[in-house]
Amino acid sequence: MPAQHTHIVVLGAGFGGIGLTIKLRAAGFDDIVVLERADDLGGTWQANTYPGCACDVPSQLYSYSFAPNPEWSRTYGKQPEILDYLRTVAESNDVIRHVRLGTELLAARWDDEQSLWRIETSRGELTADYFLSAAGIFAEAKYPSLPGLETFEGTAFHSLHWDHDHDLSGKRVAVIGTGASAVQFVPEIQPKVAALTVFQRSAPWIVPRMDRPTIGLERRLLRQIPLAQKAVRGTWYSLIEGFGLVGFVDNRFRHPFELLGRIQLRRQIRDPKLRAKVTPDYMIGCKRAIFSDAYLPALDQDNVEVVTDGIAEVRAHSIVTHAGVEIPVDTIIYGTGFTSTPSVFDRIVGHDGRSIAQLFRQRPQTYLGAAVAGFPNFFCTLGPFGAAGNQSAVFMIESQIAYIVDALSTLRARGETRIEVRAQVQRDFVEEMGRRSAETVWLTGGCESYYTTAEGGNAGLYPNWSFEYRWRTRRFDIGSYEVSA
Q1: What is the pLDDT of residues 21-60, one digit of tens each?
Q2: What is the largest CA-CA distance in the chain?
Q3: Which of 124, 209, 239, 335 is the Cys-Cys partner for 182 at CB 3.0 to 4.6 Å?
Q4: Which of 369, 367, 379 is closest to 480 using CA atoms?
Q5: Whose CA is closest to 16, among 377, 471, 405, 305?
Q6: For residue 448, what pLDDT is reported?
Q7: Which domains are seen in the chain, by residue range?
Q8: Which of 58, 50, 51 is closest to 77 using CA atoms?
Q9: Do residues 312 and 320 make contact, with C-beta atoms less than 8 angstroms apart?
């Protein structure tokens, strides 16, 4: 039985995949199949269900500009509300009929002879003229490598795979990691557990979140005066964009932000010894600063201990530190983040036999975070150097969507069907990113994070203003590509 052929296959039904489908349809493309391995759409907002899961970007900005929502219940949307928003947008824009839920990508390989993509999924084979990846970069859990971990006889799970059937009440819980997810779920579980031990490798910078519920009058004004909603979105955009002053302009701009964090520490941590433990020893912005008003007070409770000695060994019912202290534990929760290169990229192979993952592990590389040399008729969202450290991911995704849709529209108008970014264009872009990154706080701030590669280079953040990126991707630059009929 021959494989079904479709014009465009989109991988992933999160913010990127939903937005791409909406804008492709608006441009007159209708033969679209969206592959989603989960049983529901929503991407990371479907997958992450841990207690306290919320966005760290204000909802008025962390939403599509073409689908504003005046009904957000609070400044920062929580996971259920963001997921409901995505479902509503998908349903109202007739995206659902394009989505194949429970369909995992097993392999995608470019067929140079036939000039098409051959795609194998868990529910059959497809061929496609164009393959667009909107696979999330925070899609797969990263687990620590610890001696004796396999001998632990209690319950252990990652925040991405929260065990909602496991009752934490009265348990002795160890949390490994202090990233953004842990900062959100620690205050939620602290009142329930008998003892909470937080294993911290490096202290995160915590700055005030200032979250609050929105009131009915606000929502009514935003409904009735669309310009007001644009003004609110624009204000938040400008405030968050300002973090670029620290990131890639001059790290001396960090001092006001660090002062804010130190004031937060002094105000919320009473114990001087604990305060010293949770005071960062690197520049703010070197790794992701976290907005929270609840995390530090949770650490300052009688049933919580912060351990910085590091883990030497895991035993059947305990964890032993490098200092030789044995801590009884019933439950281990990993707040250790995500893999830097999701395994799905190992399954996407270009015309020279190499996978996307092989290229990215060799060196983070794309053109504009949206195209990859060696992969014809392929585009992606949030590829290396297509994400910003100082702006909403949705803003960057929308820029890439506009660029990709313009590319396919341009090809259709010209009667051409094959496209690939020129290798030299991509090399020049990556080298430009390297030059611009050399003095950024990400590389000089004194820390290790997923912002950097093992070699100490930029792992894929765009080292410039997001509005400059929007201008750069405002229209498809066909001269940067090899195109043919």
Answers
A1: 999 999 999 999 999 999 999 999 999 999 999 999 999 9
A2: 70
A3: 335
A4: 367
A5: 405
A6: 85
A7: 4-41+95-140+339-484 (3.50.50.60)
A8: 58
A9: yes
Q: Which two tokens stand for residue 248?
A: 């890639």
Tell me the pairing of strands 311-315 and 318-321.
Answer: antiparallel
Burial group, residue 477, by CB count within 10 angstroms (0-12, 13-18, 19+): middle
Strand partners, 54: 78
Q: Write down the mean pLDDT value for the chain.
A: 96
Query: What sign results for the dihedral spanned by CA atoms 182, 187, 188, 189?
Result: positive
**Rounded Cα gap, residues 405 and 23, in angstroms:** 7
Q: What is the 3-state secondary structure (H, E, C) of the chain?
A: CCCEEEEEEEECCCHHHHHHHHHHHHCCCCCEEEECCCCCCCCHHHHCCCCCCECCCCCCCCCCCCCCCCCCCECCCEHHHHHHHHHHHHHHCCCHHHEECCCCEEEEEEECCCCEEEEEECCEEEEEEEEEECCCCCCCECCCCCCCHHHCCCEEEEHHHCCCCCCCCCCEEEEECCCHHHHHHHHHHCCCCCEEEEECCCCCCEECCCCCECCHHHHHHHHHCHHHHHHHHHHHHHHHHCCHHHHHHCHHHHHHHHHHHHHHHHHHCCCHHHHHHCCCCCCCCCCCCEECCCHHHHHCCCCEEEECCCEEEEECCEEEECCCCEEECCEEEECCCECCCCHHHHHEECCCCCEHHHHHHHCCCCECCCECCCCCCEEECCCCCCECCCCCHHHHHHHHHHHHHHHHHHHHHHCCCEEEECHHHHHHHHHHHHHHHCCCHHHHCCCCCCCECCCCCECCECCCCHHHHHHHCCCCCHHHEEEEC
Calpha distance 74→210 (Å, rounded): 11
Q: Which two tokens stand for residue 138?
A: 């925070």
Q: What is the pLDDT of residues 320-336, one digit of tens each?
A: 999 999 999 999 999 99
β-pairing, 124-133 vs 116-121, is: antiparallel
Dist. CA 465–CA 469, nearest whole Å: 7
d(CA 61, CA 226): 14
